[in-house]
Amino acid sequence: MWKRTIRIISGFVWGVWLLLAAGIPVSAQEEVDSYRLRVHYYRYDEDYQNLSLLVGPKLETEVPFVEMQGSAEVEVELTDVSSEDRVPFQVLRSGEVADHKDSWFKTADANDKGVIDIYLRQGSPVVALAKQDTSHSFGDVVLESLTGVYVKVKIPIRTEDADFILYNGEEKVSIGAVEALNEGGKDSLYGTLENGYASEFMITCLEPVKLGQEILIEKKGWEPCAVTMGSIYDSPEFNRDYVYDGDDLGASYTKEQTCFKLWAPTAASAQVLLYETGDGNEEPAAHDMSRGEKGIWFLEIQGDLNGLYYTYKVTREEKEYEAIDPYAKACGVNGIRGQIIYMEGTDPEGFQEDAYRFIGSPVDAIIYELHVRDLSTYEDSGIQDKGKFGGLTEAGTTTSDGTKTGLDHIKELGITHIQLLPVFDQKSVNEKNSGNSFNWGYDPMNYNIPEGSYASDAYDGSVRVKEMKEMVLGLHKEGIGVVMDVVYNHTADNFESNFHKLMPGYYHRMSPQGGFLNGSACENETASERAMMRKFIINSVTYWAKEYHIDGFRFDLMGLHDMETMNEIRKALDEIDPDILMYGEGWDAGSAGIPESMQSVKRNTYQMDARIGAFSDDIRDGIKGSVFEAAQPGYINGNPKRTMDIRFGIAGAVNHPGVNISKVSASNNFWAAHPTQTVNYVSCHDNYTLWDKLTASKPDADEQELMAMNRLSAAIVLTSQGIPFFQAGEEIGRSKNGDHNSYKSSDLINQINWSEKAERIDLFRYYQGLIELRKECPLFRLKTGDEVRENLSFIEDVPDRVVAYTLSDSDNKFLVIFNGDEQKYELSLPDRGWDVLVDGKNAGIMTLYSVGDRLTVESGSAYVLLYTGKVGLGIEKIMALLFGASAALAAGIVYIRRWRKGREKKRL
């Protein structure tokens, strides 16, 4: 059987080969003797007089068009063409080219009977194979301002025929003018338009239209079309008539009544829906809201509503949308309904008397970045309230071998602030089963409500509020400030976000086609430059500062926010406490929807308030290498070209004569005016931990080499000008097993492994000592650019891989040396008489030893020396003298013993 099959296949192959060899085409379509071309031609100017088609391989055949109803057609037989030809054609008027000068069609597009149908439109270069829609209708119709409507029609019309009619609800709108925008110009479908024709118009209304009512456009004989919202939200008229300046949006509760206020200018109607539960299926009690001025809807409901849940329902264009209040202060499980609660009733004992406030310059802060779960979920952490707010403030916790963990570890370390990864209500974690899921939390759902998975009860909104306040109070009692990582640059949902449901297209940056812009790489970006979004962000930030006593804010993708908004936030916080910290990521994750000149990006930092900081990826990548290339080294792990990056970071990114900006890898400008604007770091939640990056870039390094690089990194960050910041666990060599994007990985990957502290206690003590040094010595915390230039001087006469500088004022002088090389150097020191406070293995404020005017700098090490002017013998000479004295003493003892023995013999 198989032999017969092979013979059949072989015969077929040979047959095909013979056909090809004979020049006979092998095709599913048989060769025909002639082709019949049918051309269907539409002209929007309806002028079909004296038109003909010129066609053929050499344009040798001319056939007149026959005018049909609404178009013209021509049919012609083609004989001198083959099945694979591209046949040129032109449309002529009275012998002159009128359209489609350089067009062609393919005979291969013929049907099995040799008929080719092509469809042409006036001015369009497209040769279509299917019938085109040539019915007159509206395309895009967009409200650009309260008095201006942009109209795009699908088929160009005479400008004089643009007799549009507008309706605002039931009322006809008085039109002042209809202006053709592209008369005789370019059209996307029809090319260059004939004079007197246009496809785009602008309608000017004599009176502003009213939002909240359907706006329709009509033209005789056409289907009516609804007018959509365009750039109206950025128009002066909208900001004049619809921006609300009150501070009472949301639900304002008293025992006697609750007042609801919603901003939704485009809604036709609005209701408050009251529920007994946060996620049940019960039918809500619906209460109609009244329309007020400036786009506000309001309602007062009498009686005590404490504990009830609520949402808003708006009607727009005859469709209903239900959403949680953006200003809600509490919610039920998974954040789908807001909750009305008595906020003062959630204050823990002593909260109103909480007097803690961080007082000082931003450079006095030492920031420790931490995820709520990471501190406590390790099995042997000794912390009982694992993964919860309460776990952050448990005192006296240790591992089974007695090593301090949790809060006691943080206190022992000496930092000033904990920065918590997002603790507002997030979407990704299912609060009904939160123990089995992990997320960093950069998917904001409800901005003014704590995340329920960190509370002991996610169903009752008051519990999460109270337990977060207890956490803040507990840290304050230990002298530790709390910084919130806030994510106002995007929302977890797009069309389903509460912002978009209640006021579509306003709170987000949108494309002209109605899609979401995506500078966040999270599918949308918010429009901070718009008045009501700016108002919401400022209101939210100040709410956290006042209601929860938050001490600082770290802005995710701050580069997506406009600088005016950031400066306004700073002003609002200053009215509460000018020492509240403010800093963020000075970049975006894509192409932002506002000009770079407006963005709060790193290069524009110098234009913002001196107390708004940006993360320095310059010093981060300069120290350890690119975060995007695991194997690429930096200064501490083998890259000899990174010394200028280290200098740039040491100077806090401010203009300094000792920094050659042309040799800095990432920046081409000194982007900070003052060191208070620079956050220095080498690791954070994003990308590899420092330990994992060092392991990836130097895979052959042993434990001691990794520890040495880690220490050198810490010394650079904690002695540089600016605000020092590091990831929790960096001080004990934290690893995530090489997971560089652990945003939804398990606790097993993300948790701090407290057993590593005992194993690397020397590394922990090194961080501890550097922190103590920084706190005690103001020269490491200079506040202005002028102070940096005046007090910091780089030493030029050092080996290429060595960075050395002095810090001095009228009271003290420090010498700081970093050796990123694999060999040690003996350096001559400026002046004579120095106390060594920090070397490659030890750090603190106590003198380790003293030197004169020379110092042996070990490879991969940092040194901090304090000038005393006391010319001692130096450690080497001291050791030599001690050795000599010991030898002499030993010799003397031997001599005395021999002498005594000699006298004893004489007596005998």
TrEMBL record:
Which molecular-function annotation in GO is an example for this chain? hydrolase activity, hydrolyzing O-glycosyl compounds
Q: Which GO terms describe its biological process?
A: carbohydrate metabolic process
Among CDD domains, the record links this protein to: AmyAc_Pullulanase_LD-like (cd11341), E_set_Pullulanase (cd02860)
Q: What is the lineage of its organism?
A: Bacteria, Bacillati, Bacillota, Clostridia, Lachnospirales
UniProt keywords, alphabetically: Membrane, Transmembrane, Transmembrane helix
Q: Enumerate the spans annotated as Glycosyl hydrolase family 13 catalytic domain.
A: 400-774
- In its UniProt entry, what is this protein called? Pullulanase
What's the family?
Belongs to the glycosyl hydrolase 13 family.
The record lists the membrane-crossing segments as: 878-896
Q: What InterPro entries does its record include?
A: GH, GH13_cat_dom, Glyco_hydro_13_N, Glyco_hydro_b, Ig-like_fold, Ig_E-set, pulA_all-beta, PulA_typeI
